[in-house]
Amino acid sequence: MENDPPRTVRHETALERDDRNFAELLQELRVTQTGVQILFAFLLTLAFTNRFGSLDEIQRGTYVATLLLAMVAAALFTAPAALHRALFRRGAKRRVVDISGNLASAGLCVLTMAFTGSVLLVVDVVLGRAPGIAAAAGTFAMCLGLWGVFPRWVRHRMSHRAPTPATSPDEPTAPPTDKG
Q1: Helices (H), 47-92
Q2: 104-123 per-position pLDDT tens digit
Q3: Range of the domain at 69
Q4: How many domains does the chain fold into?
Q5: pTM
Q6: b vs e for 148-167, b when ≥16 Cβ sit within 10 Å of the residue's Cβ?
């Protein structure tokens, strides 16, 4: 941590910070949306393959649950754009940023379950039920670890560093203006 660069002070208003935060969130969502859309498209096509008729009841249930989870994840990841559009020019950027962040977090939770179900289904069909369950458990653990535990661990480590005089990039550094 001795080599960590000092945090810099951003000279931005609260509204400028909200704009930056929303732009950063939208960039994050662009990355996840692509993956969700590919997964959803893959799942939609599975029902029309020749092998689909040979799936057992558990595999069909896994398929339907996973398809629906992928749809919910896609809806959660696109909801911030709809929310922004509905509240555009109404002075609600802070609310849009907060709600959109919550929608993205919920989307990651649902996406974890969709990934887990997808891996369970494919590995179950290819290798059998026990390997499918093992692969699904590994998928769930990896998503939980990388998307939940690891970021919290990094945040915890950062909070225990020696304090610097600079403010956090997300703290206001100038009095808010009423440009909303």
Answers
A1: 57-87
A2: 999 999 999 999 999 999 99
A3: 14-158
A4: 1
A5: 0.79
A6: eeeeeeeeeeeeeeeeeeee
